[in-house]
Amino acid sequence: MERQQGNSKVAFIGLGVMGYPLAGHLAKAGHAVTVFNRTPARAQQWLEQFGGQAVASPRKAAEGNEVVFSCVGADQDLREICLGENGAFAGMANGSVFVDHTTTSAAVAQELSAAAQRAGFDFVDAPVSGGQAGAENGQLTVMMGGDAAAIARIAPLVDCFARMQAHMGPSGSGQLTKMVNQICIAGTVQGLAEGVQFAQKAGLDGKQVFEVISKGAAQSWQMENRAPTMLADKFDFGFAVDWMRKDLGLVLDEARRNGALLPVAALVDQFYAEVQAMGGGRWDTSSLLRLLTKAGEK
Fold this sequence. Notes:
Distance between the termini: 51 Å
Number of strands: 9
Strand content: 5-15%
Order of helices and strands: EHEHEHEHEHEEHEHEHHHHHH
CATH superfamily of the largest domain: NAD(P)-binding Rossmann-like Domain
Helix content: 40-55%
Strand order of the largest sheet: 3-2-1-4-5-6
């Protein structure tokens, strides 16, 4: 898909695994990008690849820019880059938009949205799905919560790295939608791990099995992309177990608040805790198979 070129002035705060390529897509689309990263060497690396400019604080990143993007680690990281004397909010202009791609709680999104409204600008919670590969290829799904007019304004910018973007409702709705995404993934990956192990124990040709059933009702992104690597016992890539546990923690906290019953998500969260105890915190989430393999060896 050919994407529209532009010349907006934007900033990007947080050049991690996801933020680095997202900021790059904005720069490649012709936008003037200012970046901030807590590790200056990472920002310098980005500048050498994409141009633009780097600044010394989130506040400096926000000053003079129409839209400020962020992608950091968790709730407290987001508060730290947004609030305080050197936070981005202190540099935001009236009528500007702050877009956060971090996966956080809905509560912090609502908190920061209220603070932004009081200061005269908009805050959009916009978590993403698609992982590192989706970020690098500009093929993310973006789920957004906030003011409809603000989201319409940023849509052409988000399109620089999204294959799908949608306004899900008021502030916090993007984060709640991402939680649904993670609930569904958790159950799917556990089911896939059990299917792979069952095929192996049954003496079947695993590659052939998944080539066949991926064309039927069991088909999923996880099956098509992770079954081959699971069969090869490769887990050193993709979305890490540590990150999934953070996300499932947000999910389970929200479920306690809203009364949702999530027995499978809670169980898979505990399985991931066991993977962490095995030293697999940085393994891909499909490493649930290794837990089953270990149990089967006892």
